[in-house]
Design brief:
Length: 181
């Protein structure tokens, strides 16, 4: 997959921007990255604190898969984040369905949304928010608190995209059974 990164300073939500772009037909692999989100959200519409210093992004995917298979994307995104931060020396665990936890605190949240048409999946938005240099609220932790060396947003984004690409390619190759065809 070829990633095309589109950067924004301040958006309401990277998923909202990505949805507009996906509806306009941008290609799979388009990544919306924002310095700040003013209305970032998590599962069930929970507010996601998204100040400068965190990594807030959404990957637009256009898999040719049955809609039922899309339920695996949050887990695959979590695995990609887990493997990426492990390269920085950080141990994490995945809290289903959409969190990555380090030292019993939330490091990363994932929100996948999809658009289904009559022919199946039109697109999936894989939204990822990870605390990197920012000071997260209460139950959160950032990478700068966990890593013994300076870390940059660009480095973390590159690591996550590299791991996500591997997981996504495997996702497309694998046959999963979800009941009747």
């Amino acid at each position: 997959m070829r990633f095309e990164i589109r950067r924004y300073d301040n958006v309401d939500s990277t998923n909202a921007v990505a949805r507009e772009l996906a509806d306009d037909g941008v290609p799979e692999g388009t990544v919306v990255v924002a310095e700040v989100q003013t209305a970032g959200k998590g599962r069930k519409g929970d507010y996601w604190h998204s100040p400068r210093g965190g990594l807030w992004f959404t990957i637009i995917l256009r898999p040719n898969v049955p809609p039922q298979k899309s339920v695996l994307l949050p887990l695959l995104a979590g695995i990609a984040v887990h493997r990426a931060v492990k390269e920085l020396g950080v141990e994490t665990r995945i809290k289903l369905p959409n969190d990555v936890i380090a030292r019993d605190k939330k490091l990363c949240g994932i929100l996948c949304e999809n658009r289904i048409g009559e022919e199946g999946v039109k697109y999936i938005l894989a939204g990822i928010g990870i605390n990197v240099l920012n000071r997260p609220p209460g139950v959160g932790i950032s990478l700068k608190e966990l890593v013994d060396k300076p870390v940059s947003l660009e480095e973390v984004l590159a690591l996550i995209l590299k791991e996500f690409e591997k997981e996504y390619e495997e996702f497309l190759r694998m046959d999963y059974f979800f009941g009747e065809d």
